[in-house]
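Reviewers of the previous submission asked for a worked example of the structure-prediction workflow described in the proposal, so we include one complete record here. The input consisted solely of the amino acid sequence. No template or homolog information was supplied to the procedure at any stage.
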Amino acid sequence: MTKSIEALIAFFKTDSDIYVLCGERMYGEEIPKKETDRQEPRKFVLIVESGGIEHNRFLPIMEPRLDLWSFGETYHEAGKLDQAIYDAIKNMDRKTILSTLLHGATLSGGPFPVRDSDTGWPAKWRSITVQMDERTVI
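From that input alone, the workflow returned the following structure tokens.
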């Protein structure tokens, strides 16, 4: 899992609104088997790399683009989780998480209602760009 995904998951776990909705169920890169083995969907967050320019040429800043998938039992429930994520991103201040300095994030697209191609579960998708220091903070 990339540094940016790990830091964003850790950041989301500090947000009480997100945590109330999905607890520890925040994953990077793929949906774990323990989720896909379930018969029914439940709320969880999946963060995957989206591509795009990651490094600033003149500053030690990374700007990875990430796709956020908010899953829920229905589109309405997925939308509640997506709204909590949107609020956390909108209110993100400079913060050090897991030795990573997060400067902020900007919304790049979404939300869009989607269904996971493997499970058929409803989700809301959005894309963000995270501004973070590429140096490790001690």
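The helical segments are 3-13, 16-22, 33-36, 75-90. We consider this example representative of the routine output the project will generate in years two and three.
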